[in-house]
Amino acid sequence: MSTGVLRAGIQGLGVYVPTRVLTNDDLAKMVDTSDEWITTRTGIKRRHIAGPDEVTSDLALIAARRALDDAGIGPRDLDLIIVGTATPDMFFPATACLVQDRLGAKQVGAFDLLAACSSFVYGLITAGQLIAAGAVQRALVIGAETLSRLIDWEDRRTSVLIGDGAGAAVLGPVTDGTGIYSGAVGADGSAGDVLKVQAGGSRMPISSEAIERKLHRAYMDGQAVFKLAVRTIPGLIKEAVARAGWTLDQVDRIVPHQANLRIIESMVAQLHLPMEKFVVNIQEYGNTSAASVPLALYEAVQAGQIRRGDRIVLAAFGGGFTYAACAMIWGK
Ligand code: ACO
Description:
Blueprint: E1 7-16, E2 21-23, H1 24-28, H2 35-42, E3 46-48, H3 56-71, E4 80-84, H4 95-103, E5 109-113, H5 119-132, E6 139-145, H6 156-159, E7 165-174, E8 179-187, E9 195-196, H7 208-212, E10 219-220, H8 222-243, E11 253-256, H9 261-271, H10 282-285, H11 292-302, E12 311-318, E13 322-329
Parallel strand pairs: 4-5, 4-6, 11-12
Antiparallel strand pairs: 1-7, 2-3, 6-7, 8-13, 9-10, 12-13
The structure holds acetyl coenzyme *A.
Acetyl coenzyme *A binds near residues 38, 158 and 223.
């Protein structure tokens, strides 16, 4: 049934995680930690780690092909590819261009988007607006990361949290009342220091001194990130829901960024919603940054937790400090 209103809807989803699995017990052999500490503080039990020859575009490509198959279209049907990543194959060309070439999506527009763990949701909102405006017909939005390459594996504060993976969504025009109803994005650049990789850019090019001081590795003030997330995300979800013209109790499912189970539990308490409404798969993958929301969305759809007609909200936060939420009616 056509409502006459043009929106962007997800028409295909695909994910990929590397086959190598690292459990909490494996990590306890590498750093001074334990399954008990990691489980109670984060909810994480295992994560997938890219092999030595596996790079971000490899993960993105497999997820992209699966999303195209799911949508029943080919690469030449696309008009735009956005790859959300903080771990591109290289500075440039953009990982999106590498994926475009390997997909065989000739001449399709392609660019990377860096909003750390919020990148996929930022990308979805951006592509959704371009489709709703009629500027493009079909877009492929990918969140893909190999955070394992940025981590200091001797630093137990960060190494236990992360995992690698990719998730992709094909977005296209819909007029049946499903699709994206609202997006809310934000950032607080003054909190950039809480999560950063200092060396490797124009401010501090890679040098032996930078490497010795491990400044090319991810630095995180975990407690500061935790506080920013729990202070920001419940309000952001409310904003996306209000902009969609809905009330919170009309929302069937929330797909939050999987950074820490305790952060999700805090959202549950602040929003006064039942835990069952929140999709949680952090135990299997850890924090996969930009891949985390599409991985959780895909699994919820596969498990029948999200069905056609459901009102859902995707919400993410990450380094920057960035945050984004998107309200949609599931249409597949
Ligand atoms: N195993 C055992 N002990 C540990 C570990 C570990 N892996 N990591 C830290 N500890 C110790 C600390 O050294 C500290 O010991 P101390 O009291 O003797 O100094 C103690 O545990 C408590 O440390 P806290 O930092 O206070 O622990 P907290 O409860 O805050 O949990 C955590 C830390 C899990 C990092 C939490 O703050 C968090 O999840 N923050 C958000 C992280 C996040 O979302 N990051 C996003 C991106 S991830 C990335 O890109 C790297």
